[in-house]
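User: Last request for today: this protein with magnesium ion, please.
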Amino acid sequence: MSGKGGVGKSLIASYMAVALARSGLKVGLLDLDFHGPSSHLFLGLRSKRPGLTLDKVEPVEGPLGVKVMSLAFLTPEEESPVIWRGPLKSSAIIQLLTEVNWGNLDFLVIDMPPGTGDEALTLAQTVKYIDGSLIVTIPSDVAKNVVARAINFAKLVGIKPIGLVENMSYFYCPGTNTKYYIFGDSVVETLSSKYKIPILAKIPLDPELPEYVKNGRILIIDKPESPLSSSFNEMVSNLLNILNNINSSSTKSGR
Ligand SMILES: Nc1ncnc2c1ncn2[C@@H]1O[C@H](COP(=O)(O)OP(=O)(O)OP(=O)(O)O)[C@@H](O)[C@H]1O
Ligand SMILES: [Mg+2]
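Assistant: Here's the final one, the structure of the complex with magnesium ion:
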């Protein structure tokens, strides 16, 4: 999540799901951005429809076996708007969690809408145990303040922020072997030290991404050696370490 719109939450949720699956884990991805679902596009699943059995909805099978569910698979047209008030969204979230045949997963990654609204509150109030939230920012002072609000919101509602990700951190130019900080100085270190949340990764801007999305291809699968792909591997490995530490300290404290 992130308080800010357009910072790359959906790209990060989607590619993180793929990177987790690449490390051998069983992964699901639930897109809770009802008004602007887009994770399915990053996963090359445009125009897919979920299967239906008598009592469950079958998630769409994405790259590397990632199970994906999104309202985008259920609306009549790609451009159909979703006009829902809070209570309807809350019951849709519960249905998407309980009436989709997720099977046994190691991870369910949830892509949140921008802002800090009903969706996050419903999750916090209805899901008994959430490992935590990953907070996405970009290098921008404007984003920093909005993201700081999201961190405080997540803490207050009990979805502990366990990692920060800075997207569009830099552009790596293969020709000159140089990193260019297009958006300016990083802000994630300041957030990390102020709120005591570790940085999982700094994700580069990749100018090839739009072409991959347009063609329904997954850049980090097709180009596993790219800086983008390496940054997702680093992110996943840091995330797994953090979760291991949390789990071992909660086992020790008898939680
Ligand atoms: N690292 C990156 N390199 C290149 N393009 C990127 C990168 N991250 C995101 N983008 C592009 O920026 C745009 C916004 O990304 P995305 O949709 O993931 O943001 P979001 O935070 O989920 O937005 P929203 O708040 O609307 O849900 C997309 O067009 C995406 O392809
Ligand atoms: Mg999004």
